[in-house]
């Protein structure tokens, strides 16, 4: 159970970071954090064909960062903050761990500096 | 100047997110946040050949997330927190923007709910 959860978690992170590794997809995500948008609204500022935009959107949807729903002939997209938070949390945890170890090293160096020089 | 800066920034983010999109590279980074390590120390818990580990290390170094230095015959690797912080900041900015817009929508809905029903 736990192993399956961990494998899913790792697979989700793979897809989310992969989705974020492209500047066009980051631009689309950037637009969507300001509110839901249709596919053509998403495509407007991008210098590429609509099928190319749809392909990027599919990568974003597969990663769980974006969801979309079709009403009539218009597909509206929106950010799914849960996946965004998971990626942020993964990085923040590592940064915190690194900083804590750096603090510990600093404290150790300060302590040993106070000790009288044995030479 | 600003355009060149923005292009570099985007390229850096591409490489950093790309590096984070692989579970082996995340494991290596995870190990390095607990302190510097040699390449063989990094390779120990991984079920792969040393050349495969070195290849992953090269991706991490190209992304700026990790630096390494060779002293004698031992190459020691460490985390470069600047690149880690840049990726975290990019995600945090989008999440904050999204939450702010959600708050605004909530406030708007609460306000309009107080208004007398015109029907």
Describe the structure in your own words.
The structure is a homodimer of 119-residue chains. With 119 residues, chain A is mainly alpha-helical. Chain A is 68% helix and 12% strand. Chain A has 5 helices and 3 strands, in the order ααβααββα. In chain A, strands 1-3-2 form a 3-stranded antiparallel sheet. Chain A is elongated, with a radius of gyration of 22 Å. The termini of chain A are far apart.
Percent strand of chain A equals: 5-15%
The end-to-end distance of chain A, rounded to whole angstroms, is: 58 Å
Mean pLDDT across all amino acids of chain A: 90
Structural class of chain A: mainly alpha
Question: What are the defining features of this structure?
Answer:
homodimer, 5 helices, 119 residues, 3-stranded antiparallel beta sheet, mainly alpha
